[in-house]
Amino acid sequence: MSKYNWDWSILGEAPYLGWLVTGAELTIALSLCMWAVAFIFGSLIGVIATSRNPLLRAVATFYIGILRNIPPIVQLFVWFFVVPELLPFSWGTFIKRDLSYGPFWTSVVALGLFLSARIAEHLRAGLDSVPSSLVNASLATGLRVAQTYRYVRLPIAYRKMLPTLTSEFLVCFKMSAISMTIGVAEISAQSYQIESYTYHGIEAFTAATIFYLCFSTVIVALSSLIEKRGALSK
Amino acid sequence: MRLNLIASVFAALVLLIGTGEASELRGTLAKIKKSGVITVGHRDDAVPYSYLDEKQVPVGYSIDVCREIIKQISKVVGREVKVQYLSANSQTRIPLIANGTIDLDCGNAFQTIARMRQVDYSIPIYFSSERFLVMKQSAINDIDDLKGKKVAVIQGTSADKFFTDRVASQKVDIGLLRVREISDGFMALSTGRVDALTSDDVMLNSMIQRYPEGKDMHVVGKPYEVSPLGLLLRQDDSQFRLVVDAALSSQIASGELPKMMDKWFTSIGVTPDPAQQSAFRFIAIPD
Prior knowledge:
Chain A is an all-alpha fold. Chain A has 9 helices and no strands. Chain A has helices at residues 16-49, 54-69, 72-86, 89-98, 102-128, 132-140, 145-175, 187-198, 201-230. Chain A is flat and about 70 Å long. The mean pLDDT of chain A is 92. By secondary structure, chain B is of the alpha/beta class. Chain B has 2 domains: 2-127 and 228-283, D-Maltodextrin-Binding Protein, domain 2; 129-226, D-Maltodextrin-Binding Protein, domain 2, CATH 3.40.190.10. Chain B is 41% helix and 24% strand. Chain B contains 11 helices and 12 strands. Chain B has helices at 2-17, 27-35, 61-77, 93-98, 113-116, 158-168, 182-190, 201-210, 238-253, 256-266, 274-283, and strands at 37-42, 45-46, 50-52, 58-59, 82-87, 104-110, 120-121, 126-135, 150-154, 175-179, 196-200, 217-233. In chain B, strands 1, 5, 6, 7, 8, 9, 10, 11 and 12 form a 9-stranded mixed beta sheet that branches. Chain B has a 3-stranded antiparallel beta sheet with strand order 2-3-4. Mean pLDDT of chain B is 88; it is low at 18-22. The interface between A and B is medium-sized, with 29 and 34 residues.
């Protein structure tokens, strides 16, 4: 049987190399924006989830329950296709027509919020792991509840969570590829594009794989560096 | 008449293949003779070329064309050949052909020189015309009316290449939305996200037929690009390719292929372009 005609030189050719580079840039930009959304909303909901107010706790449980249990690709389609139809007409039209890089921002919101539910759950566990004696002691020194979060509970929880946050960021990084289903030209989409122009798909996807692997390795290395510096003294 | 033709094609094939030392079957044909099975790649959603019907059975124009080719293959290898269908999308079909899993891909692959470096094509089975699907109330009638408008293209199609190249070189002022499937493009058009969806006019018409939203839409414009669609074969297997092309030529010459085209395309309101019919007269290779 004849075999696949490997041609690695295709990856260095114009315009394919350029596509891979812009795809990689977009993947990184998208991951960072998604992470910002995930971290901010995750922290907010995580704190609410440990509140003493049962109503607030219920809100957080609901948020986590909905966002964590629906497959991210379904959420992305809901945000992309359904949400603009539910909004007032002019808002919907703005999102659909006038917002530049619409699919990009939709992905940032949709996938960022999905990840925020996961982070919220981790943070809730992290906050719960702070000994209650420590919380009581800080309240006894005259700190308000908000201040105990700010000065005592959150710094301890985040440090404990660092390895978890690293793997969540890696999830975030890899999940950015889902955005190609709504037309974001990130690196997986660009590989797909190269494959349909040239039929050299395996080479293009290998290049994308190596990019994902290298970037992830760098993140893991950075994170372990931070972990060493910021470790809680035992 | 038809029997005569098939018989004469068969005779021609026997002559072509059966002379001298070349009588031994090689490559794909040898594999099919040995196993008695041919693996055919099909698409799931390329209506009306190659798709799964309600019973999840592959059907369509390309599948019908292939069925006739496989009859010829059976004659050449001298035994009844069983057809094994394998769903292959545009990303999986090339590796599957190259590694020997798929023998013949019966979908709607458009032909380009860049792709021919990796895979062989049969003679064309159709010439797809790229046109636009728009809302009936819009004022868009052709490509010139799209200035400043948004257009959905399906990733990896010839339309995608056409517009991506032109937008990149700033020849046209059009906002592109790249969608993964024709159904996503259709949804983008029906929700007002884009002003037009561009693709093969046959597929666009099939969308109008299949979905109720289609009643407010129509296909407009002169074809801005025409691409030949062919069946995909492994490279370096001229013996197999000869059988496939000969079978196709005889289907064209006998009028069977235009008949199949009518059956699949008129049912969705597409009248194949008269130019299409004359093109076929030219591509059919005489015995």
